[in-house]
Amino acid sequence: MVVGLGQDRQKRERARVAAGPSGKAVELSNGAADLVRARDQLLGGGQPRHPRLDAESLRAALVDLYELWLTGKGTEVGITPDSGLAIMAVGGLGRREMLPYSDLDLVLLHENMDPKRVAEIADRLWYPLWDAHIKLDHSVRTVPQALTVAADDLVAALGMLDARHIVGNPELSDRVIAGIRRDWRHGIRGRYEELLTGVRARWERSGQIAHRTEPDLKNGRGGLRDIQLLDALAIAQLTDAMPGLGPETPGGGLAQAHRRLLDVRTELHRVAGRARDQLRAQDADEIGAALHIGDRFDLARTLSDAARTVGYSVDVGLRTAGNALPRRGLARLRRMPVRRPLDEGVVEHAGEVVLARDARPQRDPGLILRVAAASAQSGLPMSATTLNRLAEDAPELREPWPKDALNDLLVLLGSGRGVIDAVEALDRTGLWGRLLPEWGAVRDLPPRDALHVWTVDRHSVETVAYASVSSTRVARPDLLALGALLHDIGKGRTEDHCVVGAELATQIGRRMGLWPSDVDILSALVRHHLLLPDVATHRDIDDPATVQYVADALEYDPQRLELLHALAEADSLATGPGVWGDWKATLIGELVRRCRVVMAGEELPEPEPVPQELLVRAAAGGVHVELSQGDGKYTYLATVIAPDTPGLLADTAGVLALHSLRVLSASISGAGESAINTFVVTPAFGSPPDAGLLRQELNRAIAGDLDVRAVLTARERDTPAAARYARAEPWLSWTPTPVAGQFILQLRAEDRIGLLCRLSAVLSGVGADVRWAKVVTMGSFVVDVFCVALGADAGPQRRSAIETAILAEVPQPAPRKTSEQERT
């Protein structure tokens, strides 16, 4: 492991030329301060005579730079080949993956030398690094001590598996490295469960890189620690270091995924100016641009692909390692695992789905789907060897697909949660894209809506899994499963994804061999998969025109209505927490019920009247406030009746907010000269206030004795400044109604304290008459719909002024820093 003279000279020259300003060499023999200056010069760059290094070149230059300094300093303090001393690098320098601000992990080895002499040499080595503020993780060991530490400490053992000799006596380093690797191989059976427990705990703490807004590139599932885990399993001779994947897979395989993760983390260090593992959202655009990937969405897609490739490889590696562990005692006497048939050409063997001995992938294009369906139904993973063989040998399915192939696909899609792992394995090995070439546009595509927690492709498969629960509620579960799979297939393009998706669904349906009438239904499902939730939550379902609109869009087909109802629920459940709830389910259910009546040719019923007791109270005048238990354990129904005066809705919503009642939904109506408003609310904590107190506070607000907006603004000052900024841009639209001067105003934005109060005050202040309104809160987001009458002056100029006033009240993303601010 001693560096040759020619290679050493080349390394020195590379480090000096890269680090030297204006081409002048920097001497690194006088202290670590020169090392820091040289590192900073490497990180700077950007000048014509000193170009900016790309991430990979930067890592290589840093490795050379640190090795150059350590070699020179080690020689200076007496660490020579015949000294009985050696410096061994672990961590990033040991792996030749030195990042700009990574810790320097070093071990000083000695051959039972005088402790005072060793301490003196160690001080002369460590103190310059400390004085230069270089993060140093160091230890001083004899060879037996190093082996003992690795045997007793799993984390230390994993770190020293990457050890590499730097300077001094190479025999000492070789004895440690060889001994640790030997002990690791021999002791893996007894340490495997501890290793697995630690890995799972790390995943639980750090989450999945592929589906995190701000992922931990080092410790998250699919990150750099997992690649080191694969290397450790390979050193233990339990698995290949790159199991189950090759360069022909989407994204380029594990080696490419590894490089991409390293590149992003390298640029993260450079942007942050310090060691950092978590990619912050505000740094993503700059890092994406530096790597020539694109914006933050392009970077997120790249990371998802890399992390899911690593994640799949780790799953294969751990499974292979578990099966390869040496057995002892009675386990050695057990019979070899039997091969249990699962389907034609498909068997179970050793806990995996594999090909039967007589299977002929070259002549059986439907074998891919049979293997996947068997895996999803049985819950057993597909063997990596089987998937690789299918990728190499299985031919393309002819068009139209054979019925058996379509049936196997439907079995796969109807397998509940089992479909998720099966499709993921097919996709990571390139087989899913062979079945559905259109999938490439949505693979690893990050969501633009913060409500979504999955990438678009994973969301689609999650929707399939949820849809399978509703299969018994529809007459055509096959079309429901296909509609769930393809409902977002049009995303990733500039056009409306519903329109594009409908066209693609027609193309795919024909290729799969569906009947023409079924192709039409599948296309309609994709085209209208947002119809029911959008109409139910954004329009007045008591209005006959609303129901008529839905019936016309679905061509009076009850089957399409039934399928869309189930798809809307599955789509919402697969989106994220809080998107589907009792309120949304009730609205969509009622809309579907009314549409069924129209489609059956019956007369549409009139809107349900306001309960008589509320009409009586409204006729009597005055202010009435009632608070009763809602449908959920922590929800309450607040009913407010008061004279319909300008600003009433703002005052009412403000009073609710002041008493920590969060509005989940609201319905605004009236009778005569009174407003009858109902709110579904939930307390931020504890129990709700007494209705009498709410009435008292509302009277004060109506009389002008309580400025609810001022109190809310004062309360909001206690909110951290960063929390006042939104993660997503607010969205607002105007849709004219058949009534002249009347519009549907829709707003989607992040919530803030008393937002409904502020919005209502804006509309009241500009003289907009709110005829009815629907408000719903989903997590930290609101989707508000107001039917407003603007009268004769309803032109674009006035609507633009109202829009500006509304947007001034909703949270906005943090302003981008100017170039001058960034330099400062």
Automatic annotation (TrEMBL):
Keyword Cytoplasm listed: no
GO biological process, any: regulation of nitrogen utilization
PROSITE patterns per record: ACT (PS51671), HD (PS51831)
Span list, region Uridylyltransferase: 1-341
Catalytic reaction(s) noted: [protein-PII]-L-tyrosine + UTP = [protein-PII]-uridylyl-L-tyrosine + diphosphate; [protein-PII]-uridylyl-L-tyrosine + H2O = [protein-PII]-L-tyrosine + UMP + H(+)
Family matches, as Pfam families: GlnD_UR_UTase, HD
Enzyme Commission (EC) number: 2.7.7.59, 3.1.4.-
Residues annotated as domain HD: 456-557
Molecular functions per Gene Ontology: [protein-PII] uridylyltransferase activity; phosphoric diester hydrolase activity
Regulation: Uridylyltransferase (UTase) activity is inhibited by glutamine, while glutamine activates uridylyl-removing (UR) activity.
Summary of the function given for this chain in its UniProt record: Modifies, by uridylylation and deuridylylation, the PII regulatory proteins (GlnB and homologs), in response to the nitrogen status of the cell that GlnD senses through the glutamine level. Under low glutamine levels, catalyzes the conversion of the PII proteins and UTP to PII-UMP and PPi, while under higher glutamine levels, GlnD hydrolyzes PII-UMP to PII and UMP (deuridylylation). Thus, controls uridylylation state and activity of the PII proteins, and plays an important role in the regulation of nitrogen metabolism.
Family assignment from sequence similarity: Belongs to the GlnD family.
Protein name as catalogued: Bifunctional uridylyltransferase/uridylyl-removing enzyme
Record lineage: Bacteria, Bacillati, Actinomycetota, Actinomycetes, Mycobacteriales
Gene giving rise to this polypeptide: glnD
